[in-house]
C-alpha cells in the first residue's frame, strides 16, 4: 500500500512539473513577445510629413552645380540673351516636366535696345581738336537707350546743377544739342526724361568723382524703358574735360542697338487648389554678364525649384498623410531681373490688363508673393523682408499681410534658435511690382553688397557660437555681381536654413483655413486698375540708379 502511494505521489509531482514548465514557457513567451525588438516594426504613428523636412543641402547643391556647369559652357555667364540663360530655363522646365505633374507654361517678352551690335563710338571735338574715346574705358551705353548715328559733330550743352529740375534745363538752350549732365541727386532715368522733354539729340551723364569708385564709367546703368534718345555714361575725367571746353565742345555719338526677343518667364502651377486664391512663389533666373550668378541668383532659382519638386511629390505620393492645400501654388522664375525687374514687371503688367478674363491669370486671383533672391551668401545674414521699410506709396491693403508674413518668418527663426536681421522692402527685387499692385509680399535673403557691421557679427556669434558670426566690415557677398560668383561663393549652412524657412512659410500659409482673411482682414480691392508699367518700379529705392 505504501509502495502504491509512493507511485501515485511521484506521478502527481511529475504532472505538476510538466504543467508548471508549460505555464512558465507560455508566460515567458508572452513576456518576450512584449519586449521591444530592434527588428520589430513600431506600432507608433509616424510624425506628420512636413515640406520643411524634405529640404536638404545635398539636393540644393546638386542642382546648383548644374547651373554652374551651364554657365561654364556659356562663357561664364547666365545673363539674358545668352546661351547660359536659355539653357537655365530649359533645365528648370525639364526638371519640372520630368519629375512633377505641375502645369508648366512660359511667358515671353522683349527687352528693347538691349543688344549692342558692333563697336560703339564716341568722338569729341574741343577747340578744333578731335579725340576718339574708348568704349568701357571712357564711356558705356546706358541700357535701353536708342541707337545713334551722328554723321557730324553736334554742339554740347552743359546742364547746370545736376539736371534734376526743370529750371536746370530752361536756363540753357539744349534742343537738338547733346546734353552733358553730372551724376547725382536724382536717378539716371529721371535725367533722361528731362532730356527727352527738352528735345535733346543725345545725353551724356558723367561720374562725379566724389569717391574712389566714382571716377570710371559705370556698366549696365539702366534708363527708362522705351527711351527715345541715345545716352552714354562717361568717366569723370572726360566729363570735366568736355565741361571745361564748353562752349567750344561738340561730340559725335554712334551706336547700333537691337531688341532682345524671346526673354522668358516660367511659371508652374499645382493642379489642385483654388485658382482664384493663388500663392505666388518667385525668384529670378538670370545673372549679370560678369560671372556665373550662382548666389545671385542661382541660389534662389534652385531653392524655388526644390520647393516645387518636393511639394509636387508630397501632393502626388503622400496625399493621405499630406493633403493638398486649399490654394493653388504658382512657382515662377522671372527673366531679366538684373535689368530692372523686367520679367516680374511684365507678368504683373499682363495680369492687370482689363481684357484678361481667364480665371487664375488675373492679378485679382493672386493672394501674395514670396520672393527669394540671393539665399546663400558666404558672409550671410538671415535677412527677413521688413514691412516697416515699404515705400510710402505702397497701397494700404498690402501692409497688414506683409507684416504678418514678416512676423511668420521671424517666429520660425526664433523657434529654430537662429539669429535674424531686417531686410529692406525698398525696391531691389521682384516683389516690387506685386507690392505696388497691392499684394502682400515677403521673403528672406542673405544679403548682397551691403556691409556686415561689428554689432551684427556679434549678434550672430552670440547665438551661433564664437567664430560663427561672419566677418565684420565686409560685404555679405564679396562676389556680388562679379566673376567670382561661382559655386564656391556660397555658405551651405545658411542656404539650407533659408530654404527651410521658405518651405515653412509656404506650408504654414497653405494650411490656413482662410488665407485671404489672414492677409487682408479689412478686405482687398480686386478690380485693380491698370498700372502704367513705368510706375510699377520706384527707381528712387534702388541706390544703383543714382
Automatic annotation (TrEMBL):
Domain PA span(s) in chain numbering: 154-242
UniProt keyword annotations, A-Z: Membrane, Transmembrane, Transmembrane helix
Domain Peptidase M28: 265-504
Any Pfam family matching the protein: Peptidase_M28
TM regions (residue ranges): 7-32
Family: Belongs to the peptidase M28 family. M28B subfamily.
Protein name in the entry: Uncharacterized protein
Amino acid at each position: 500500500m505504501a509502495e502504491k502511494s509512493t507511485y501515485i505521489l511521484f506521478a502527481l509531482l511529475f504532472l505538476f512539473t510538466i504543467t508548471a514548465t508549460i505555464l512558465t514557457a507560455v508566460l515567458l513567451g508572452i513576456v518576450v513577445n512584449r519586449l521591444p525588438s530592434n527588428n520589430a516594426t513600431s506600432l507608433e504613428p509616424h510624425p506628420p510629413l512636413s515640406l520643411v523636412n524634405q529640404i536638404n543641402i545635398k539636393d540644393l547643391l546638386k542642382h546648383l552645380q548644374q547651373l554652374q556647369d551651364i554657365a561654364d559652357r556659356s562663357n561664364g555667364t547666365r545673363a539674358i540673351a545668352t546661351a547660359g540663360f536659355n539653357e537655365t530655363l530649359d533645365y528648370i522646365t525639364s526638371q519640372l516636366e520630368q519629375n512633377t505633374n505641375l502645369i508648366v507654361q512660359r511667358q515671353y517678352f522683349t527687352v528693347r535696345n538691349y543688344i549692342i551690335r558692333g563697336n560703339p563710338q564716341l568722338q569729341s571735338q574741343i577747340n578744333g581738336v578731335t579725340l576718339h574715346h574708348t568704349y568701357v574705358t571712357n564711356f558705356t551705353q546706358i541700357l535701353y537707350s536708342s541707337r545713334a548715328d551722328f554723321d557730324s559733330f553736334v554742339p554740347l550743352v552743359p546742364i547746370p546743377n545736376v539736371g534734376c529740375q526743370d529750371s536746370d534745363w530752361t536756363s540753357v538752350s539744349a534742343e537738338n544739342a547733346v546734353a552733358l549732365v553730372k551724376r547725382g541727386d536724382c536717378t539716371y532715368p529721371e535725367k533722361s526724361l528731362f532730356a527727352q522733354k527738352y528735345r535733346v539729340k543725345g545725353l551724356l551723364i558723367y561720374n562725379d568723382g566724389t569717391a574712389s569708385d566714382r571716377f570710371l564709367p559705370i556698366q549696365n546703368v539702366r534708363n527708362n524703358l522705351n527711351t527715345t534718345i541715345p545716352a552714354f555714361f562717361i568717366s569723370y575725367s572726360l566729363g570735366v574735360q568736355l565741361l571745361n571746353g564748353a562752349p567750344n565742345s561738340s561730340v559725335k555719338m554712334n551706336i547700333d542697338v537691337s531688341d532682345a526677343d524671346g526673354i522668358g518667364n516660367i511659371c508652374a502651377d499645382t493642379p489642385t487648389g483654388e485658382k482664384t486664391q493663388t500663392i505666388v512663389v518667385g525668384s529670378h533666373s538670370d545673372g549679370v554678364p560678369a560671372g556665373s550668378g550662382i548666389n545671385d541668383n542661382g541660389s534662389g532659382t534652385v531653392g524655388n525649384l526644390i520647393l516645387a519638386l518636393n511639394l509636387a511629390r508630397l501632393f502626388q505620393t503622400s496625399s493621405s498623410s499630406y493633403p493638398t492645400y486649399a490654394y493653388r501654388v504658382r512657382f515662377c522664375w522671372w527673366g531679366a531681373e538684373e535689368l530692372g525687374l523686367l520679367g516680374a514687371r511684365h507678368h504683373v503688367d499682363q495680369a492687370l490688363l482689363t481684357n484678361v478674363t481667364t480665371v487664375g491669370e488675373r492679378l485679382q486671383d493672386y493672394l501674395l508673393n514670396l520672393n527669394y533672391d540671393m539665399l546663400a551668401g558666404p558672409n550671410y545674414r538671415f535677412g527677413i523682408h521688413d514691412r516697416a521699410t515699404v515705400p510710402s506709396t505702397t497701397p494700404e491693403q498690402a501692409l497688414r499681410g506683409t507684416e504678418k508674413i514678416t512676423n511668420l518668418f521671424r517666429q520660425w527663426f526664433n523657434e529654430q534658435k537662429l539669429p535674424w536681421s531686417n531686410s529692406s522692402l525698398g525696391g531691389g527685387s521682384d516683389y516690387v511690382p506685386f507690392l505696388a499692385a497691392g499684394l502682400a509680399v515677403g521673403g528672406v535673403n542673405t544679403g548682397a553688397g551691403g556691409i556686415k557691421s561689428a554689432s551684427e557679427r556679434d549678434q550672430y556669434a552670440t547665438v551661433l557660437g564664437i567664430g560663427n558670426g561672419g566677418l565684420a566690415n565686409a560685404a555679405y557677398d564679396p562676389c556680388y555681381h562679379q566673376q567670382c560668383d561661382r559655386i564656391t561663393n556660397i555658405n551651405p549652412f545658411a542656404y539650407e536654413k533659408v530654404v527651410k524657412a521658405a518651405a515653412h512659410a509656404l506650408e504654414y500659409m497653405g494650411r490656413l483655413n482662410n488665407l485671404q482673411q489672414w492677409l487682408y482682414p479689412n478686405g482687398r480691392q480686386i478690380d485693380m486698375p491698370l498700372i502704367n508699367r513705368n510706375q510699377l518700379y520706384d527707381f528712387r529705392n534702388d541706390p544703383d540708379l543714382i
